[in-house]
Amino acid sequence: MRKTLTRLVPAVGLIAATVVLGAPEARAGAEPSMEPSMEPSMEPSAEDFAAYAEEAFASSGLPGLEVAVTHGDEVLLAEGYGTDSRGEPVTEHTPMRLASVTKSMSAYGVMNLVEQGEIDLDAPVADQLPEFSMADPRAEEITPRQLLDQTSGLSDRDIDIADLEESQSLEDYVSRLEDDGLSTDPGAEWAYCNVNYNVAARLVEVVTGRSYDSYMKEEVFGALGMEETTLSAAESDPPKGRNELFGVWIEREEIGGFLDHSASGGAVSTASDMGRWLVSQTGEGPVSQDGLDAMRTPGEKEDYGLGWGVDETEGGRTLLSHSGNLFTSYAAHGVVPETGYGFAVMADSALLTDDTYTIMEGLIAVSEGREPALPEGDGMYQWVLGGVTLLAAASGAVGVARSRRWAEARTPRPLWAAALRCVPLLIPVALMLGFRGVITFLTNGRHVTWEQLTYFSIPLTVAVFAAGLAGLAVIVARVAGLVREHGEQRA
């Protein structure tokens, strides 16, 4: 399972990949446990993983990175590379945002309550959370299992996400759903939607009588010894994230909204703590092996279990994974049950490509005795989009400068006929004006704002606007020239 950010090319048809938040592709798989049962023919050493991680960091061009690798109950690697936005060295204790990697942890927290008999995975949520109601009566049939495996019928297409982002608490968040509807019958289709996990988190609050933040801190993170992990950036104070614009790193605050204390993407952690989290996937924690196996069972509609995508490695083994993508940081984690290896990669920056997942795939290759690929970063795309921007600006300047001569050459024709020659220039103008709408359409209706388009997709946005403004400037100059020339002829 991975996001479609990893192979982005600067074409309009793939623009959508630059704005999708935590939307993984589902993959096929089995029902694995995490007990090592099949080892690579030559088991790699901790030094092998460290050597690859260091080389991958250098190859990616990322300014800061953290990596954790485990095998069974042993942490083989927990290391930081580069410097953060404060100029401090990144270590295994530097806090970084996990984004949608949080979902795997949230599902774990729910499963803990399922095993305690506090939550029924297959009973209607409305029966266990009476305050949950929607304008669509089908919502009464949604179960916690459907929330966690993303088959509830909740979708960004039919929910006012902008309204939910203004919520002040999980209770407030759920109450704002009362005017919304479902896209499909519960259980009918798979649709990745952050709302699912935040409704599940509110269920946890009502069942336990505690805040979701408190429950996770004490019963999950605390139980696993993850003392550096929180659900609030305000509490853990991670360094600011970064975006790149044509080779220049820009320090950015993460976009506001309902993120802190959320179950869908609010976690902040470190490589040191992620090692402990990965070890818990062997059954060393409050959730039993049976519970872990239930979470790893893919649903009927997609190869996505409860907070885990189910895929295969290139070596033919099962890969349980989840990526996390915010506007200023990326993360990915995965476990390979047959070999007992676990992996986590976090970056405090967000580019046009997601190299955290690529690096994780490289670490998996090392664990399986295969030749690992190195990330290539987004340097090529930055250069291409920078070139498009410069070319658009130069073309626009030349077009404006030559607009009078252009108008003079076409003045003998009717004004409307000459003006039609400007129609091709409307294409980049239309793309610029409809840019957000195009992105929304290509991301299957996911909520996209102009502000979001100025973050990790900023090189693409700048290129689109450079072309659009250049086209508009030439159109205005040419039309003004035609009007002037026709006016002079009449005079």
TrEMBL record:
Subcellular location: Membrane
Keywords of this entry: Hydrolase, Membrane, Signal, Transmembrane, Transmembrane helix
Stored InterPro entries: AmpC-like, Beta-lactam-related, Beta-lactam/transpept-like
Signal peptide segment: 1-22
Superkingdom assignment: Bacteria
Pfam families reported for this sequence: Beta-lactamase
Domain Beta-lactamase-related: 50-350
Transmembrane segments: 380-401, 422-443, 455-480
UniProt-recorded Gene Ontology molecular function terms: hydrolase activity
Keyword Methyltransferase carried by entry: no
Major place of residence: membrane
PANTHER family with a match to the protein in the record: D-ALANYL-D-ALANINE-CARBOXYPEPTIDASE/ENDOPEPTIDASE AMPH, PENICILLIN-BINDING PROTEIN 4
Descriptive protein name: Serine hydrolase
